[in-house]
């Protein structure tokens, strides 16, 4: 693949910022919002709660504060997306109560929310789980000292949302440091919150009584950018990936250089070229700024093309190897031992019909299909649309052959929300 690609706004920043819109008492304008299925689902949830939304363009939306219609969420929407759990923190902050079905999401193994609930209790909320519903209630949220047992992006987001409106000071220790957390903190502060330390493992939050409006641009998607960086090395391309924040992809840049790819970093773009053979390398996933678990499936695809044996250790999710069986159908030589995958690289993948099990596995199988000899058909490809905007157009513009097998019927397109 050769050419230039512009990544969309960050899915995971947008999915954290949209629930925070519930706190605003004045108009909120968001730009660089990715037009992906998960965002459309979140918009439907907000509309269902009574938020007035005006779409100003494909990636720009205005939100008008309104009386909320309630504090309970529809199971049909919530079970599609784990990020719906963020509405627990936002509704607690806004209404002092929330009823949210226990969140679903990608099948990456157990997705507990014990840290979220432990934090809400520390802020004075009562919590019970019955009939698959998480019911939270707090006469008044009071600041507290919370030490997360696990570095959790979701728990950090949820507890920032609740603590922002709690009375007094909250200290969140062992917090996640992902750029999406920083983007949420910047958005909340633009609305009048007082949050310091986002991006470090100690976040201090002084609760406030009222939130104004804000104008905010969502940060670029570092996982989409990393996807294209790894895809360029995997297919032997020369790719310029635009309007990114290179610092957010430092772990990927370092790993690609270690594997022999050439990576040039400029202030807002990264260029990846593959000149010679790829070298085997070991990859260990860790919370930011470590190598992101969301790019582990893509790193695995790349390593099948590297000379020699590589080992991937997945330290974040215990079930995040479901793409391995699919890659084996394409001739990859991979052996799973607990949380590690041993890849014997150097072979050539062969096209095959494969099944997409989750969002990032789908992106990995798409790239594997571009590397393979012959045709690859991805079934359940809709997983990919959850997190990648205009994915076919982006890859096709770079010379890749990626086509939806069937055009979505007009009814399907019409049924899409907002
Ligand atoms: C967020 O998921 C992202 N999703 C994931 O991206 C990402 O893979 C993950 O963070 C890690 O970076 C969104 O931002 C919407 P965690 P989240 O809580 O919040 C354990 C994608 O493809 N844990 O940081 O669910 C958990 O089991 C998605 O864009 C607890 O034990 O991840 C996991 O092992 C996939 N108890 C680890 O922490 C809890 O209460 C990290 O999970 C919460 C989490």
Textual characterization of the structure:
The protein has helices at 11-20, 37-49, 75-78, 86-95, 114-122, 153-163, 179-190, 222-235, 250-258, 296-303, 322-329, 359-371, 382-385, 391-396, 410-415, and strands spanning 2-6, 28-31, 52-57, 60-64, 97-101, 126-130, 133-137, 145-147, 169-173, 194-196, 202-206, 214-217, 238-242, 262-266, 269-273, 283-284, 309-313, 333-337, 340-344, 353-355, 377-379. Strands 1-13-15-14 form a four-stranded mixed β-sheet, with helices on one face. Strands 3-4-2-12 form a four-stranded mixed β-sheet, with helices on one face. A four-stranded mixed β-sheet has the order 8-9-11-10. A hairpin with a 2-residue loop joins strand 18 and strand 19 (340-344). The protein is globular. It has 418 residues and is an alpha/beta fold. It folds into two domains: 10-217, UDP-n-acetylglucosamine1-carboxyvinyl-transferase, Chain (Alpha-beta prism), CATH 3.65.10.10; 222-410, UDP-n-acetylglucosamine1-carboxyvinyl-transferase, Chain. Ligand EPZ binds at residues 11-12, 15, 82-83, 106, 110-116, 150, 152-155, 176, 293-294, 316-317, 359-360, 387. Residues 11-12, 15, 82-83, 106, 110-116, 150, 152-155, 176, 293-294, 316-317, 359-360, 387 line the site of ligand EPZ.
Question: CATH architecture of the largest domain, please?
Answer: Alpha-beta prism
How many whole angstroms does the radius of gyration measure? 21 Å
CATH fold title of the largest domain: UDP-n-acetylglucosamine1-carboxyvinyl-transferase, Chain
Mean pLDDT rating:
94
Termini gap = 33 Å
Small-molecule binders here are: ligand EPZ
- The CATH class of the largest domain is Alpha Beta
Total helix count? Answer: 15
**Beta-strand segment tally:** 21
Going across the biggest sheet, name each strand in turn. Answer: 1-13-15-14
Structural class label: alpha/beta
Shape estimate: globular
Whole-number tally of structural domains: 2
Query: What name goes with the CATH superfamily of the largest domain?
Result: Enolpyruvate transferase domain
Strand-residue fraction?
15-25%
Percent helix, as a range, is: 25-40%
How would a textbook summarize the main sheet? 4 strands, mixed
Which consecutive residue ranges, at least 5 long each, have pLDDT under 50?
none
């Amino acid at each position: 693949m050769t050419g230039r690609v512009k990544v969309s706004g960050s899915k995971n920043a947008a999915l954290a910022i949209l629930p925070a819109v519930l706190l605003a008492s004045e108009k909120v304008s968001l730009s660089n919002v990715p037009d992906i299925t998960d965002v459309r689902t979140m918009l439907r949830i907000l509309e269902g709660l009574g938020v007035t939304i005006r779409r100003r363009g494909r990636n720009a939306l205005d939100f008008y504060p309104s009386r909320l219609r309630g504090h309970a969420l529809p199971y049909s929407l919530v079970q599609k997306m784990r990020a719906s759990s963020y509405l627990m923190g936002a509704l607690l902050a806004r209404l002092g109560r929330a009823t949210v079905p226990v969140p679903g999401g990608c099948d990456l193994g157990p997705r507990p929310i014990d840290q979220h609930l432990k934090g809400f209790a520390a802020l004075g909320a009562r919590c019970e789980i019955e009939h698959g519903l998480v019911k939270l209630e707090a006469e008044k949220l009071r600041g507290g000292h919370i030490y997360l047992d696990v570095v959790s992006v979701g728990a950090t987001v949820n507890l920032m949302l609740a603590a922002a409106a709690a009375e007094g000071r909250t200290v969140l220790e062992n917090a996640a440091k992902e750029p999406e957390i920083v983007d949420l903190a910047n958005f909340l502060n633009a609305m009048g919150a007082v949050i310091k330390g986002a991006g470090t493992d100690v976040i201090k939050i002084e609760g406030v009584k009222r939130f104004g409006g804000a104008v905010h641009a969502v940060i670029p998607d570092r996982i989409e950018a990393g996807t294209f960086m790894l895809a360029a090395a995997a297919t032997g391309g020369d790719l310029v990936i635009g309007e990114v924040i290179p610092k957010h992809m430092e772990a990927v840049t370092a790993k690609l250089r270690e594997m022999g790819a050439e990576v040039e970093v400029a202030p807002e773009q990264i260029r990846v070229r593959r000149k010679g053979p790829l070298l085997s390398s070991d990859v260990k996933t860790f919370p930011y700024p470590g190598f992101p678990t969301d790019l582990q499936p893509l790193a695995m695809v790349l390593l099948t093309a590297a000379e020699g044996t590589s080992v991937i250790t997945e330290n974040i999710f215990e079930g995040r190897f479901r793409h391995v069986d699919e890659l084996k159908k394409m001739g990859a030589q991979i052996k799973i031992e607990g949380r590690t995958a041993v890849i014997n690289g150097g072979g050539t993948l062969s096209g095959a019909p494969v099944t997409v099990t989750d969002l990032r596995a789908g992106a990995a199988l798409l790239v594997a299909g571009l590397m393979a000899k012959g045709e690859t058909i991805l079934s359940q490809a809709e997983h990919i649309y959850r997190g990648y905007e205009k994915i076919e157009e982006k890859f096709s513009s770079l010379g890749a052959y990626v086509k939806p097998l069937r055009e979505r019927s007009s009814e399907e397109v019409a049924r899409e929300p907002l």
